[in-house]
User: Fold this.
Amino acid sequence: MTETLDDMIQFDLRARGVRDERVLDAFRRVDRIHFVPLMERRHAYDDRALILSHGQTLSQPYMVGVMTQELKLSGAERVLEVGTGSGFQTGILACLAKEVYTVERIEYLATTAEDRLLGLGFSNIRFRLGDGSRGWPEHAPYDRVLVTAACPQIPQSLSDQLAEGGIIVAPVGPPASQILTIGVKKAGRLDIRTDTPCVFVKLIGSEGYAANVTDNPSAHSGEQEYTD
Assistant:
């Protein structure tokens, strides 16, 4: 159990390879405790996913750090996030980029995250309720795309909406386990490499996994715990 925010940053992020100082500073500015249910506040700085309402999870700090660092944000980018969830990752991105466009398919999660982030003073985030696997084409192209749910493959719509030279980060693979996948768009195609093993909830949508009767319709973004 990590007792303080500083401990989380030092031992769960920096010591494990998340060393971009801008990313670490964003974790200080977007305190995870604001995104944790009251009954879980004692676990706010633990390096594990936490259960939210509607079957949702609040992402593990280490995975948020790794994925954010892979985006290589300088502060000038327009970022598309697929899967708003609690809004924790959204807030981290908003500290590091010029604009964030975030899409969530569950209305309760979308409106709750929007209220929370606006209440924390963020003004560079735009919110949309809809199928995130199809992106947000009206505002494309994006310099960066971050997917916070497991994809069977990187959705073509998201690749199409990524600007030339842009970076997309997504967990790709079957529902049981995925590999964090990083693509850089070169000459209209993605140059792919893979990195960290991970286990995310399925991306439900027309270019993700199809919903079925066994799916919790609200559990589509965030991730389960991964320990290296």
